[in-house]
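Feature request, filed as a ticket because there's no other form

It would be nice if the structure record came with a short human-readable summary line next to the tokens. Right now we just get the raw output. Example of a typical job, pasted below so the devs can see what we mean:
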Amino acid sequence: MNRRNEFATAMEVLAALRESPLSSSRLAQRCNINYGRLSKRVDALFAAGWIGKETTGSQEVHTLTEKGLDILLQYLRMSNEYQRGVKLTSGQEGF
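Raw output as currently delivered:
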């Protein structure tokens, strides 16, 4: 079993919230992560200001903040740059 590290999980949470606000249970489903592990990530991301919380009706949903979006976009740019760099090195792993 290949387990994602905390950073990869955090980026996946941000990417999911970029699409739409989600409840904790929907976010756990979307990211294919157990609720307990998700809860720890959500708490850390909220404390960092990367995600927010809103109440709609009787349900609390998580949202992506501007700061979270900036972090996600930086990550995606670096990931794309890394992928291009790996392809250019003709089979070498990394830089």
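Something like this underneath would help us a lot:
The chain has one domain: 6-83.
The CA atoms of residues 39 and 58 lie 19 Å apart.
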